[in-house]
């Protein structure tokens, strides 16, 4: 069945409409797209005519999106993002295929990136395109070939491979430990115990790993490890870090471990992919490579 041209507006029309909806005016949209204001207005008007309904209400030279316009803009923005990613992936393809991977920020920086040269050396034609995501993605909503996430291996509608279980190490600045030495878990009382939004039970697991009951946890909340590490280096409190991250900070003498290191955490790192990409050759190569790299962390 062929596509109906009426429902396939041009990229220029869609980009102009999305820019107006996003910026709130034809003037700002024109500046963002490097077009004239008149061109933006004509493109939006032609799109409305093609769809047969208004996407904006025009009041006192202002454009207010209609409810239909708001819904349409959300869908169009996602479609334009997908087209942009596909175009970038094709342009960057070295001949062996491109793998679009969503990865946790700290995992990508501290674990994956230092090892990635080994994969690229043995698969010189494969291009890896990385985007960071703090939480698992929905493959139906975001066009990725795979993701690496932390959790229980329960991403919806996805194939899975467990990489390794997370182990955690509590760390603090040398100066903080000089002022307040810690020889037992109870001595953490009164200190700020930093927390990560995606690990709400991490400190409970750490106290269990020290062979004691958990203390009440009170401390700053972070959404990423990078900021938590900097706060710990500044001596503001105690950071509970994945052991592979803690090792680098300890080796550089920026942080020191608190009590027993590398105790069991609350989840694992997983590679996941949409079923449609199961036999995609760059994914197969990357999966096989990860399988050989990950056991050293188990």
Description:
- The strands form three sheets. Strands 3, 4, 5, 6, 9, 10 and 11 form a seven-stranded mixed beta sheet that branches.
- This protein has two domains: 5-90, Arc Repressor Mutant, subunit A (Orthogonal Bundle); 95-298, 3-Layer(aba) Sandwich (D-Maltodextrin-Binding Protein, domain 2).
- The mean pLDDT is 88.
- The protein has helices spanning 11-23, 26-33, 37-51, 67-92, 105-122, 174-179, 202-209, 225-233, 243-251, 281-293, and strands spanning 56-59, 62-65, 98-103, 127-132, 146-151, 159-172, 195-196, 221-222, 239-242, 256-257, 263-273.
- It has 298 residues and is α/β, with parallel strands linked by helices.
- Helix 1 (11-23) packs across helix 4.
- The radius of gyration is 25 Å and the shape is elongated.
Order of helices and strands: HHHEEHEHEEEHEHEHEHEEH
Kindly state the percentage of residues in helix.
40-55%
Largest sheet: 7 strands, mixed
Number of helices: 10
How does the overall form come out from the CA principal axes? elongated
Mean pLDDT: 88
What structural category characterises the helix and strand content? alpha/beta
| Number of domain units | 2
Supply Rg: 25 Å
The top level CATH class name of the largest domain: Alpha Beta
| Beta strand count | 11
Cα distance spanning the termini: 51 Å
* CATH level-two architecture of the largest domain: 3-Layer(aba) Sandwich
Task: Give the DSSP E fraction (strand runs of 2 or more residues).
Answer: 15-25%
């Amino acid at each position: 069945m062929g596509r109906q041209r009426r429902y396939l507006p041009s990229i220029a029309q869609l980009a102009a409409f999305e820019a107006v909806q996003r910026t709130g005016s034809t003037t700002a949209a024109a500046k963002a797209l490097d077009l004239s204001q008149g061109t933006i207005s004509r493109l939006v008007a032609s799109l409305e005519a093609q769809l047969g309904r208004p996407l904006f209400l025009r009041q006192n030279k202002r454009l207010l999106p209609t409810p239909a316009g708001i819904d349409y803009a959300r869908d169009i923005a996602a479609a334009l993002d997908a087209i942009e990613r596909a175009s970038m992936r094709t342009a960057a393809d070295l001949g062996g295929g491109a793998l679009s991977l969503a990865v946790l920020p700290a995992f990508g920086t501290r674990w994956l990136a230092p090892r990635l040269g080994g994969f690229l050396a043995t698969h010189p034609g494969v291009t890896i395109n990385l985007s960071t995501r703090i939480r698992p993605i929905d493959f139906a909503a975001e066009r990725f070939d795979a993701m690496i996430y932390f959790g229980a291996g329960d991403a919806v509608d996805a194939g899975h491979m467990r990489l390794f279980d997370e182990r955690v190490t509590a760390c603090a600045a040398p100066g903080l430990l000089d002022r307040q030495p810690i020889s037992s878990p109870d001595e953490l009382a009164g200190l700020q115990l930093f927390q990560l939004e995606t690990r709400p039970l991490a400190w409970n697991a750490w106290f269990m790993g020290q062979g004691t009951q958990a203390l009440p946890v009170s401390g700053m909340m972070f959404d990423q490890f990078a900021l938590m590490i900097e706060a710990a280096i500044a001596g503001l409190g105690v950071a509970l870090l994945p052991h592979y991250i803690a090792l680098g900070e300890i080796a550089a003498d920026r942080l020191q471990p608190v009590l027993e290191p590398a105790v069991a955490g609350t989840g694992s790192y997983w590679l996941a992919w949409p079923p449609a990409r199961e036999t995609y050759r760059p994914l197969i190569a990357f999966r096989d490579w990860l399988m050989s790299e990950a056991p050293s962390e188990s």
